Amino acid sequence: GWQGGGMRIRRGIQVDRGRVQYFHVVSRVVDRRMIFGDAEKDYFVGLVRRFERFSGLEVLAYAVMGNHFHLLLCVPVRPEVISEKEVWRRMGYIYPREKIEEFREQVGERVAQGNVEYEREFLDRMRARMYDLSSFVKDIKQRFGRWYNSNNDRKGTLWEERFRSVLVEGHENALMKTAAYIELNPVRAGIVGRVSEYRWCSWAEAEAGGGRARECVIKLVSGGGRLIRWREASAQYRSYFIEQSLVHSRGRPRHSPDLAEEPSDESVQVSGHRDMRGLLVRKWRYFSEGLVLGSREFIEEFYARNRERLNPKRRTISYGLPGTEWGGLCSYRNVRIRPGGQSGNRD
C-alpha cells in the first residue's frame, strides 16, 4: 500500500509466509472512473469467488463500489505439498474446460519432445499463484480488466498501478470492525440506507443464503474458534451495522448514482450515536491507509520484527483510535522506510 508522505511501502514488509495473516485490500479504477455497473459488479464478485477457490485464500468480507473494491482476506500458510491432482482440480475454477485440455495437450507435447521437467515447471507456476496476496489481487484485476476491455472496445490498463493493503490482526475485535467498515461502504456513499440493500457486498450475499459468505460471517464472529449457528452469528454481525433507514449527515440523497468518492471526515465527532455502528458510518482512514491495524501489542510485535526496515528512531509506533468504542484498536501510520530497506512484491 502507500503510506505517509506519498512514499511507497513494498508489500513484503507486511507479509510473513510462516503465519496466517489478514489483509484489508483496496484498489481503484484508473482516474477513478465509475465503470462498475450492475453487470460489472456481478462479474467481479463471481471472479473473486472463483479465484478464492483456486488460490486457497479466504474472502471474509467484500464490497464492490462504482470505481473501487474492498476485500478482507485471510491468507493461510502455504501447504508444503500441493499435489498435481489438486493443482489441476483448482485450475478448473478459473479456466474453462477447453483451456484445461489445451494446457494438458501442451504439457504432453513438451514432455514427448524430451522436456521431462515441463509439467513440474508448469504446475509450479500455478502453485506460486496460490496462497499469495499479490498474485490473488493481480489475477482478479487482470482477468476483470481483459473482460471489461473486450466488452467495451477498450485498450490499456483499467486500474491504478498498485493496491493498498493493511495488515489486520487476526483477532475478533480488529477483524469484525474492519469487515463492518467494508460492508458499510455503500451506506457511507449514500447509495443505500442499510447494508442488506446493497447486493454487491458479502453481508447481502450471506443474507441471501450464500453458503460461502455465511461461513465467513461465522468465522469472523467466532474469531476462528468455536463454531456457532448462523442465527447467532448473523445477529452478532448485524449489530455492527446501522440496520435502520439512514441518510448521510452531509445531506446527500440516497441512491445517488454518481458518487465517485466516499465522504471523508475523520476528525468529526459523531453526535448522538457513540456506539460502534454509528462510528463506522464515517470514513476512518485508519482502516484503509495505515500499514497495520490491531492491538497495541500486535503493532509493537510487527515493529520489533521489522525495526531495521522501518525507522528505528521512531518514538510513537501506533495511533490509538479515539474513544473507548474501538476496544483498544490501534493503527500504525505515516511510516518512513529506510534507504535500501524496501523488499517484497509489487502487484
Q: What is the string of helix and strand elements?
A: EHEEHHHHEHHHHHHHEHEE
The biggest sheet amounts to: 7 strands, mixed
Strand order of the largest sheet: 2-3-1-4-5-7-6
Shape: globular
How many DSSP-defined strands?
7
- Put simply, the count of helices is 13
* Sheet/helix structural class: alpha+beta
Please tell me the overall pLDDT: 81
- The helix content is 25-40%
Write down the Rg. Answer: 21 Å
Features:
347 residues, alpha+beta, 7-stranded mixed β-sheet, 13 helices, 7 strands, globular, disordered N terminus, disordered C terminus
Can you offer a commentary on this structure?
It contains 13 helices and 7 strands. By secondary structure, the protein is an alpha+beta fold. A hairpin with a 3-residue loop joins strand 2 and strand 3 (68-75). The longest helix is centred in the middle third of the chain and has 19 residues, at 133-151. It is globular, with a radius of gyration of 21 Å. It starts with 20 loop residues before the first strand and ends in a 15-residue tail after the last strand.
Helix-strand blueprint:
Elements: E1 21-28, H1 38-55, E2 58-64, E3 68-75, H2 84-91, H3 97-112, H4 118-128, H5 133-151, E4 164-168, H6 172-183, H7 185-188, H8 202-207, H9 211-222, H10 230-238, H11 276-280, H12 286-289, E5 292-294, H13 296-305, E6 319-320, E7 330-332
Parallel strand pairs: 4-5
Antiparallel strand pairs: 1-3, 1-4, 2-3, 5-7, 6-7
Helix pairs in contact: 1-5, 2-4, 9-10
